[in-house]
Amino acid sequence: MSASPVSLIIVSRHRTASLLRTIAAVRLQDHLAMELIVVADPDAVSAVRALNLPIKLVGCDEANISAARNAGIDHAASDVVAFLDDDAVPEPTWITRLTAPFANPDVRMATGFVRGRNGISDQWRACDVDQFGQDHALSVDRHAVTLLAGTPTRAVKAQGTNFAARMADVLAIGGFDSNFRYFLEDADISLRLAALGGLTAVVPDAVVQHGYAASIRRRPDRVPLSLHDIGASTACFLRRHAGGCDMNVHCRTNRHAQKARLLQQMVDGRLEPRDIVPLIASFDDGWAEGLARRLTGLSARPTADRAFVPFPTMQRQGRLISGRIWQRRELMRRARVEAAQGKIVTVICLSPTALFHRHRFDVSGCWKQQGGIFGKSIRDQPPIRLIGFEERVREEAARISETRPLN
Q1: Residues 4-29: pLDDT tens digits?
Q2: What's the whole-number mean pLDDT along residues 69-90?
Q3: In whole angstroms, what is the distance from residue 247 CA to residue 383 CA?
Q4: CA–CA dist 403, 407 (Å, integer)
Q5: Alpha-carbon gap, residue 146 to 124, rounded angstroms
Q6: Cα–Cα distances in Å, from 164 out to 78, 167, 226, 282?
Q7: Rounded to whole angstroms, how far apart are CA atoms 210 and 215?
Q8: What DSSP element (H or E) covers 213?
Q9: 200 vs 356: CA distance, rounded Å
Q10: Could you please report the per-residue DSSP string of 187-209?
């Protein structure tokens, strides 16, 4: 059975190196009918153009993720549109698995699981979001697709770095609301799509790794540089979805939550006490702006005859290379050779220690996992285990093979 076409949109601003790494991973997707649309600042557009790949390039240097995604939507040619962040790396099977549920005509949206910076631990699984913008964890079978219905006041949340929707539905609701320049834009569109009826698919094995790269709003360690847009988006969200609520109460509640987060980062040594007051002030300024923004009904976006531009993807053979830490140079040399031959290469390089494991995609086109033979990789493992090298490699390979071909 041939794959249904999908348009993948990646938005990027002033993170060219991270974007190029994401595109390198997208090239390994096994979906055979995909086009890639990159919406980015001029420098990034030039860098992507230099790759000489069939990518739809859209220039946009506005600090507004919703407006940028809408610009990508306006160039999409498929019945299904998917979204990925420029600091995320998808598993090779990601887009195929994420979009498979759309074979069911009742499915309007799909979202997958997200791993954190170490490439192993879950950063985000599944949740729904209510009309106040609050997330609520969902218990789903992590080995099967779960179909759930939502309402205009509570719906499965489409994680912004890992979701897809039917193009006709996205156009019908007016796309993303540009009032959400950053934060809650995915919660907003989730509730508006849910209002159309139908189902959302939670697809646990549609996996991306999210790196939380630095931006104008946060440092590489996720410490915020400003809370202005969080304040503004929160106020807009409540006005849009929780009409009649006591905004003063919600302002205090959200302000307290942000302050608690900042204080914890101060305790962790990532913030200075003097940083707290200006950051809270930026939240207050943003809240005031969000109250003043003009919220209008979103008009349906126009449909158009757009040409589908196939992005070169293929189903590739997997290759697992494993060895000891003192062999790492030779392991990586072999990995790059096999990656250049078109294989999906995974390297497991272990030391005789109890170091925690990290799993990362390299821009050269291969994945590399490092850590101690006796150290833990997933959170619920004990910090130290007595286990042999070969058994440990088999254990890690079994986990990795759930989302990536190895042999």
Answers
A1: 899 999 999 999 999 999 999 999 99
A2: 96
A3: 45
A4: 13
A5: 16
A6: 12, 9, 29, 33
A7: 14
A8: none
A9: 35
A10: HHHHHHHHTT-SEEEEEEEEEEE
Distance CA(126)–CA(138), nearest Å, equals 5
Instruction: Supply φ then ψ for residue 402, to 5 degrees.
Output: -70, -25
Residue the block writes with tokens 């320049």 = 181
Cα separation, 150 vs 179, in Å, equals: 23
Comparing C-alpha atoms, which of 27, 36, 32 is closest to residue 7? 36
Q: Which amino acid is at 143?
A: H
Is the pLDDT at 2 greater than 80? The verdict is no
Q: Which amino acid, one-letter code, is at 74? A: D
User: 257-292 burial string, b = 16+ CB within 10 Å, else e?
Assistant: ebbebbeebbeeeebeeebeeebbebbeebbeebee
Position 62 pLDDT exceeds 90: yes
149-193 per-position pLDDT tens digit = 999 999 999 998 999 999 999 999 999 999 999 999 999 999 999
- pLDDT surpasses 80 at 148: yes
Q: Which candidate, 94, 101, 99, places its Cα nearest to that of 115?
A: 94
